[in-house]
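Ticket #4471: structure output looks truncated?

Reporter: J.K.
Steps to reproduce: submitted the chain below (195 residues) through the standard prediction queue, then opened the result file.
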Amino acid sequence: MACQTATDPNSLEWCEGQVNLPGIRPKVYFTPKSTIVKWPTRPTVLATGETMGKLATYTGNFELAADKVWQSMDIIEDRSPATADVQGTKPSKTYLNQAVLVVPNVDAEAAGLSQLAANSDYVYLVQDKPGKFRVLGNEMYQTNTDVAMALGGSATDEMGTTITASVTDSCHMPFYEGEIETADGIINPSTPETP
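Returned output as attached by the reporter:
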């Protein structure tokens, strides 16, 4: 049997003067993995003419159990970095995807989420500044969620809840272009935003 490689790589180009906006947007979506009844898929082999970006992009929609929707949290975006680091050795390298999500809330709802997420497996959707959604969570590995809280001491101390979500994946923070069903309606990331 002949081996099938994903594809030959294509060029990574950068246009002089192009703006590269760091960070993520101030709303993050999340759901327990147990509510997901069907996952979108990512290809392992590309069809002729497809670029390597398809390897890192989910096709299709997340389908949640009946009466379940993606919940949201408002974060302090300037203090909430998202990263992906390589781990392991060939031929078993993977990525550790992580987002540190700083939430201003220190109320009972934030404490409740901490209690639920700490020993559960959650999936998070973060949106980068250009508008693309990225996924933290997958079918293969459990997502670890650590939650810390600070009430502060003096009048100038910081106060808030810090949610650190991390998960191993075969891709660094894959893209998601499918629908996101929320309590306020469906978000369709594949539809361009209008100013």
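Triage note (M.O.): checked the attachment and the full token line is present. Helices lie at 108-118.
Status: closed, working as intended.
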